[in-house]
Write a structure and sequence with these properties.
Elements (H helix, E strand, L loop, with lengths): L3 E6 L2 H9 L8 E4 L8 E4 L1 H4 L9 H7 L4 E3 L3 H15 L6 E5 L2 E5 L7 H16 L3 E6 L2 H13 L10 E3 L5 H5 L12 H9 L5 H5 L3 H8 L1 H10 L10 E2 L4 E12 L2 H21 L2 E12 L4 E11 L2 H16 L5 E9 L2 E2 L4 H25 L10 H13 L3
Parallel strand pairs: 2-4, 5-9, 7-8
Antiparallel strand pairs: 1-6, 1-7, 2-3, 5-6, 10-13, 11-12, 11-13, 11-14
Helix pairs in contact: 4-5, 4-14, 10-11, 12-13
The structure holds magnesium ion (MG).
């Protein structure tokens, strides 16, 4: 029998920001783009969630729901360093760690010879103590149930802190655990599928588990059969060691006002390509797919992509992105959002230990900084680029004394 852990850092970006600036602790705040630039919430504190704020919501809407909301622009290079550190801690438990996003991973701990709850507690304690971040874990016999268990456990939390939840589903109890949950809790069941299932009288995972595979196949094809399997708590996908996190790198820009200015659009493409290639260089990656995304004023979104031989050449990536833009731009509609991404990433051949040394070095610098700010306060040490942000935050908290 397998023992699979799903780990998810709690309100990750916010937890990092709180660690940097303890004044934010327990406050309503959100990390994301500014409302003036039609930014969206990428992460929000649990205190803000009480007001109905959630991620992917326009920041302006978040502020309407929670007028005292403090907004913090993200510091993604810092988040990446924290993420590296967490993954390094996880790899001390097993080499079978599959990172699925900046703050989520699966671990296959089947070969670790202690009980599921004990290993969960050990992992959580290490992440809490060594990286100083809260995290929630779901543990079960497979990925599907581990992830759903974790979502469920976190979802039970109410309050201003962090869930730091640990939810274990005992082997053999998978279907029982899932039975009363809504079908939406299953992977791959979006609003459309959920409403079609609802019309068929299927609203809980338990309903789905006992539904006729024939009917499901007729309505949803192969996916329907998989859904029935999953509803019964069955999933045989292995944990793939490595990172699916860096399978693509992308960045988007939302214009404050929809634009048809071609120069402006091309400038954005160039700027985003510069950022993306910088991130590729940081991670020593080359890409073999270039993508572009355009969202028109009516929110319709199109993507175009092209393959190339593996490259990290900024000019080449820019040329490819601009030629994709040329195709899409034939329509000349007002653009709300533009994005560029690269995928098909592979590691440049360079001695791995060099890279490891660099990661460790960064981590040490970063840990030292974190310790200094905890011991001597936040004003002692700052990234240059954060000075402006701090000033803004201070002005805001002066306007809204606690
Ligand atoms: Mg998370």
């Amino acid at each position: 029998m397998s023992t699979i852990v799903h780990l998810d850092l709690d309100a990750f970006f916010c937890a990092v920001e709180e660690r940097r600036n303890p004044l934010l602790r327990g406050k309503c705040f959100a990390v994301g783009g500014s409302p003036q630039h039609r930014g969206v919430v990428s992460s929000c504190s649990y205190a803000a969630r009480e007001y109905g704020v959630h991620s992917a919501m326009p920041m302006s809407q978040a502020i309407r729901l929670c007028p005292d909301l403090i907004t913090v622009p993200g510091s993604h290079s810092l988040y990446r360093q924290y993420s590296h550190h967490v993954m390094a801690v996880l790899r001390q438990f097993t080499t079978k760690v599959e990172q699925i996003s900046i703050d989520e991973a699966f671990l296959d701990v089947s070969e670790v010879e202690i009980g599921a709850r004990e290993i969960g507690q050990a992992i959580q304690t290490r992440v809490n103590r060594e990286v100083h971040l809260p995290c929630s874990l779901g543990i079960a016999g497979n990925k599907l149930v581990a992830k759903i268990a974790n979502d469920y456990g976190k979802g039970q939390f109410r309050g201003n802190g962090f869930p730091n939840a640990l939810t274990v589903v005992t082997t053999g109890m998978e279907a029982d655990f899932l039975r009363l949950l809504p079908v939406r809790s299953l992977w791959g069941v979006g609003p459309k599928t959920a409403s079609r299932l609802d019309e068929m009288g299927i609203s809980t995972i338990g309903d789905l588990a006992v539904s006729s595979p024939d009917t499901m196949f007729r309505s949803f094809g192969q996916t329907g059969l998989e859904l029935v399997q999953h509803a019964n708590g069955r999933d045989d996908r292995p944990v793939y060691p490595g990172s699916s996190q860096s399978k693509s790198i992308s960045e988007e820009h939302t214009f404050p006002i929809d634009t048809t200015d071609e120069m402006k659009l091309r400038e954005q493409i160039k700027r985003i390509v510069r950022n993306i290639t910088r991130r590729m260089n940081d991670q020593r990656l080359r890409a073999s797919v270039v993508r572009i995304k355009l969202r028109w004023a009516d929110f319709e979104t199109i993507t175009r992509q092209r393959s190339c031989s593996a490259t990290d050449d900024m000019n080449l990536i820019d040329q490819l992105a601009e030629s994709l833009f040329d195709q899409a731009w034939a329509l000349r509609q007002p653009v709300r959002l533009i994005g560029v991404g690269v995928a098909g990433l592979s590691q440049k051949s360079i001695q791995l230990n060099l890279w490891d040394v660099e990661v460790q070095k960064n981590q040490r610098i970063f840990d030292t900084m974190a310790d200094i700010s905890v011991r001597f306060g936040n004003d002692v040490i700052l990234f240059g680029k954060d000075l402006q942000t701090r000033k803004q935050n201070e002005e805001r908290s002066n306007e809204n004394p606690p």
